[in-house]
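Render this sequence as a predicted structure.
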Amino acid sequence: MKKFICATSLFFAAVSSSASFANTDLVDVDQMLAQTFELIANNENRAALDNLNWLAKHGVSHDPRFHDTLINTMQDLWFNFAHSYAPAWKSYHAVYNTTQQSLLLTPQNCAAFDIALSYSQQPHHATNHITYLEQTEQQFPATWQRCWTLSASFKAIEHISEPLITQYVGDLSDHFKLHIVDDLNATYRDCDNLPNESLALECKDEHKQKLLDASVMYRDAAMAIHDDISEAGRIGGHTIGLFLEWQAYDNRN
């Protein structure tokens, strides 16, 4: 009974909040997102979806800092939520389609660029989106220069997009060293600060898997685009070098 009352309270809080949001400028969007996690955990799916729809439409206008949360945390939450709650798929597609249309009309709309990229997790969305970026780039070189991000580079490499990699990524081995090797190496040793050895080992295994996955992705792109064994070899060399560095570090502890 207590659990039922708790869930019911959350539901009415969400409905009440959603109804009043349009009438106030003082909306804590991060708190609303946290509430959405609770609603999903309590299977109050309709209220959770109402929150997500509201945040997608109004979150950034109420707090510009919410932009990063919108394209990262919220997008992942919504994508996963849609797997267990069918109506969420329709809304998820609607957000993507609306944003894609905005990007078609105004290619320099960097907010739309970020959102369309982050909402293109589904394979056909991603393929269509990369194709559109390529076609526009080939017609109007450097169209996306103002809005390009590291996430866009990763998506271009994943889909082996020659025009986008050539224009915005450059040498794949240098990009791999800077954005994969150096970034992972910067946090690998922090795994030892976790509360127990099991968590530390799990953290290190995750780093190693990320390194391996990225190495394959970069090498595949290098071979497909440049047919360059030397470029792929440098990527492999960076990969092996970091594994050896981590092995030496672990052996000292």
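Summary. The CA atoms of residues 103 and 113 lie 6 Å apart. Residues 1-24 have pLDDT under 50 and may be disordered.
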